[in-house]
Design brief:
The protein is mainly alpha-helical. Helices cover 62% and strands 0% of the residues. It is built from 6 helices and no strands. α2 packs across α3. It is flat, with a radius of gyration of 24 Å. The two termini are 44 Å apart.
């Protein structure tokens, strides 16, 4: 039996997405029904309301907590450099000195 290639998998994924999207109106109506139902548990109502808001307005940005390694400080520092770069005389906005002060981190430390 031949192995299915990437094209076949991509086509199948596209078909699944298309099928799921064809049920969007019904799914939203069900979520609204649960949200408004006084017979539904409070948890179900909140979950339905959150799902509706996420789809209509996008997910809420999650705050980043500052850990032992000062990730929040690092993020603020990078933001300051990008948004408010120090004035330089024709050179790059980020100087070599500033680059050496930014600690190197890996995905594991960010995911914490």
């Amino acid at each position: 039996m031949p192995t299915r290639g990437k094209t076949s998998g991509a086509r199948t994924l596209t078909e699944i997405r298309s099928l799921a999207r064809s049920h969007t109106r019904t799914a939203i109506r069900v979520l609204v029904g649960i949200m408004r139902s006084e017979d539904a548990s409070p948890a179900a109502r909140v979950s339905a309301a959150n799902a509706i808001l996420d789809r209509g307005w996008g997910k809420v940005a999650q705050p980043v907590e500052s850990g032992e390694d000062g990730m929040l400080e690092l993020i603020h520092r990078i933001e300051r450099i990008i948004v408010h770069p120090p004035s330089s005389s024709g050179g790059d906005a980020v100087t070599t000195l500033e680059m050496t002060e930014i600690p190197i981190c890996n995905r594991a430390s960010i995911a914490r």
